[in-house]
Amino acid sequence: MKEQILKLLRANPDNYISGEEICRRFDVSRTAIWKHIKDLQEEGYQIDAVRNKGYRLVSIPDLVTAAEILEGLQTKRMGQHIVHLKVVDSTNVVAAKLADEGEPEGTLVISDQQTGGKGRRGRPWFSPPGTGIWMSLVLRPQLPMAHAPQLTLVAAVAVSQALTEVTGSQAGIKWPNDILFDDRKCCGILTEMNMESEEITSVILGIGINVNQVRSDFPEEIQGIATSLREITGHPIPRASVVQRILEKFETLYDQYVENGSFACIRDQWKKQSITLGRHVSAATSRGIITGVAVDIDEMGALVVETEQGQQKVYSADIQVS
């Protein structure tokens, strides 16, 4: 009911809606209406309440609730079912549990804060309250197990495109899973696969984005290498609109990828947004450090590095780019 009242107020930003009208529309008491209005005000919505006139929505807070994300979201599956939490250890952990319980593809878990956010190789991810986007999607791709890591690359293209549009500045992809502006990290992507009898049952796609932090908000040790959308644009950005743009971009690319069964159909888009190709890299792999110039990415998503010994393919590694 609270969401319905909010939707009604949102649809009439220049008019007061009387309590009588709300009662009539939703068949509830004046007391119930006032309770929902008060709850919305406590969440940060500025609502004028004027005797004999009714209620009017004055301003909307920067929230990543289901109500804010679903308002105007143009997707068929991605984000159509949302689990919003105020504080969580890790959205990936919650999403994996929901996937095991049978939640449909496209289910979105999003939180205002993570206390145990993580990146690749279990590294901690700084996830303070109210400033960033900490979210995970449940995916159920009908793909061979070996293709699952490519979903990180597909997501990187979607996120890079979305953040470029949101900021008006070109975002770049650092292979395999980071989104950077001017060589400073803004976003990390982490995919985790669940299997049964060598078949993919679900893939959890975790995305963490620094949105409205300022430089002093970051721990001192990462201030020189991290950035946020606010730092790029010079002004705060509504987080829900960023989530919407990412979900819409990702659904299009994901469907294209699954339909083709190959990263090849998205490879050219990835290469256009890459800040890795053409640069000297040092890749720490399980078989040692590979150094050389990143010259390409193959159809499986492996990074092709030109070394003194010839071309070598890197499938998984931490890389330094210079």
TrEMBL record:
BPL/LPL catalytic domain ranges (all copies): 67-258
The entry marks the following residues as binding biotin, namely S90, T91, N92, Q114, K185
Write out the entry's keywords from A to Z. ATP-binding, Biotin, DNA-binding, Ligase, Nucleotide-binding, Repressor, Transcription, Transcription regulation
One Pfam family linked to the record = BPL_LplA_LipB
Q: Domain of life here?
A: Bacteria
A GO molecular function term, named singly, is: biotin--[biotin carboxyl-carrier protein] ligase activity
**EC number(s) of the enzyme?**
6.3.4.15
Q: Which HAMAP family match?
A: Bifunct_BirA
Record function comment:
Acts both as a biotin--[acetyl-CoA-carboxylase] ligase and a repressor.
What does the similarity note say?
Belongs to the biotin--protein ligase family.
User: Per its record, how is this protein called by name?
Assistant: Bifunctional ligase/repressor BirA
Source organism of this protein record: Effusibacillus consociatus
Encoding gene per record: birA
